[in-house]
Design goal:
Layout lengths: L2 E5 L2 E3 L5 E8 L7 E6 L6 E6 L7 E2 L7 E6 L4 E6 L8 E7 L1 H7 L8 E5 L2
Parallel strand pairs: 2-10
Antiparallel strand pairs: 1-3, 3-8, 4-5, 4-9, 5-6, 7-8, 9-10
């Protein structure tokens, strides 16, 4: 069965950094992958996307220049390096296949997410 296990979140001061990891299993790690986040009272939104060969990563405007997405296909791992974190980045972060893949394949599984809190 599909399993997505996110880790690496925590409490950090504004301007700080965190590195998130996601261990994926139960499906071939060949699809475009995405980091999503859900802030309190808001809908879950994609923030960074990477295709199967790590070409042309895509970032939401709100994180562009601060976040870096990467993947290790051999280990079925997805990563998100987050620098210069700001209070607006506070959210639960999730990994999953890209939205278009999710729709095409009917993915419904989500991991537990990892909480990122940016506060002084």
């Amino acid at each position: 069965q599909v399993q997505l296990v996110e880790s690496g979140g925590g409490l950090v001061q504004p301007g700080g950094s965190l590195s998130l990891s996601c261990a994926a299993s139960g499906f071939p790690f060949i699809y475009a992958m995405t980091w999503y986040r859900q802030a309190p009272g808001k809908e879950r939104e994609p923030v960074a996307l990477i295709d199967d060969m790590s070409y042309n990563p895509f970032y939401a405007d709100s994180v562009k220049g601060r976040f870096t997405i990467s993947r290790d296909n051999d280990k079925s791992m997805l990563y998100l390096q987050m620098n210069n974190l700001q209070p607006d980045d506070t959210a639960v972060y999730y990994c999953n296949v890209a939205p278009a893949v999710m729709k095409e394949l009917g993915f419904t599984s989500w991991g537990q997410g990892t909480q990122v809190t940016v506060s002084s």
